[in-house]
Amino acid sequence: MDIEIDLYSGRRNPVFGLAPEAGEELMRRISALPAAPPGSAPPQGLGYRGLRITGGPADGVEEIVVSGGVVAVRDRDGGQRVLQDAGRALERSLAAHAAAHLSPAELSLLRQELEG
């Protein structure tokens, strides 16, 4: 399972792998999240846009985006569901995993985004 920190516009984003056990725990946490309010979606635009999870996170899942208090799960068949990440707890947990894979400047930028 790969996690891309969608941090930059026009530059290569940092990517790191998640161990199988951590990936299973991540999927358990995602499956326990409630549906987000109608119209909720991850933030768009320039700069930090969240964490993008790919590489077989679960059967039938193409991509998961964790950002701004929501988790968007896009299925391989084109379906999508948006879940609520209260207090950005899941996003913060993934950012903690990412810390070992980032430069000090990237880590500082990510922390600023999560605190702001």
Automatic annotation (TrEMBL):
Protein name per its UniProtKB record: Uncharacterized protein
